[in-house]
Amino acid sequence: MERAADDAVISFRGVRKEYPDGTVAVHHLDLDVRRGELLVLVGPSGCGKSTTLRMVNRLVEPTSGQVLLAGVDVASQDPVQLRRGIGYVIQHVGLFPHRTVAQNIATVPGLVGWDRARTRTRVHELLDLVGLPPGTYAGRYPNELSGGERQRVGVGRALATDPPVLLMDEPFGAVDPAGRRRLQTEFGRIQRALGTTVILVTHDIDEAVLLGDRIAVLAPGGRLDQLAEPSAILARPATDVVAELVGDGRAVRMLSITCLELVDLEPAGANADAAVGVPIGTPLDVALSVLTASTSAAIPVTDAGGAVVGLLTPDVVHRALRRTTLEALAASE
User: Fold this and answer.
1) Which listed residue, of 179, 232, 245, 316, carries a Cα 20 to 30 Å from 123's Cα?
2) Domain tally, the chain
3) Edge-to-edge strand order for the sheet containing 38-42?
């Protein structure tokens, strides 16, 4: 049996999806998704993002090629059992309206035979994890929740049996912009904490840059145009499709994935006040907002213990941004 790469949880091997009318949704895709990474599929409408995702849990069957999960061809597995072992989150959540939040999250544990005590403990753990206190939310029904809260429940339900793989298809698309950014940040925290392998589909390059460990840009016809870390995608788009997707906001997007490092900072004076500083490792877009709101031309940067390790100035922002861009360019050569 063909095996995937050693560090790959999901592998696409020469995968093609062609419909009876001749439409090619995915064209000979070769792609590995590494253990514990969040891989984002992004591209224009009709480029095969969702089709690619759904071939992992056999909601769509490939015309040719193989999709391997932990080295085993998914076509050889029972689709019902396969799907019970894979988390799946869609844009409009699909919560059962007649079931409480707790009952919705307990759906898959019930199907696989967990007892009540184990299920109840897991439900409460997940509600805490997604930021919905069990005492407040466990007994509520979906129509009593906001869009963002329903999406959090959907994420909790998908993680209920701690699946090694989570598939997410435009998971935050139905949430308002402010709520969407909060959900993105919260989900990024959850994914890093759990180490779950995730494939996320989005049309939003900002979401891809914010969340992705790597980004796979698909072109019309389901062709893989570029696969790289977010910084490399921004610094050196490989094709016109990628360049158009990234657009003119390349530098602004680079700010969100560049963090303050010691090498970038100006030396601190002896009287620098740590109380008004920002922590080392702060994303540049956040640091720049703090600096812009300050009446000072320089603000302290502190380490984990609260000690001042340097100063943040406009020159520091430019230096850090240039460093990240040059690193991305070197990595993409």
Assistant:
1) 179
2) 2
3) 86-90, 165-169, 197-202, 38-42, 214-219, 223-228
Q: How far apart are CA 75 and CA 16, in angstroms?
A: 14
68, 169: one domain: yes
Alpha carbons within 13 angstroms on the beta-carbon side of residue 38 total 24
Domain carrying residue 268:
258-332
Question: pLDDT digits over 250-294, tens only?
Answer: 777 788 778 888 888 888 766 666 667 788 988 888 888 888 888
- Which residue reads 């657009």 in tokens? 247
Helical (H) or strand (E) element with 254: helix 250-257
Residue 208 CA to chain centroid, in angstroms? Answer: 7
pTM of the model: 0.79
Whether residue 114 is contained in a domain is answered as no
- Domain assignment of residue 135, yes or no: no
Identify whether 115 is part of a domain. Answer: no
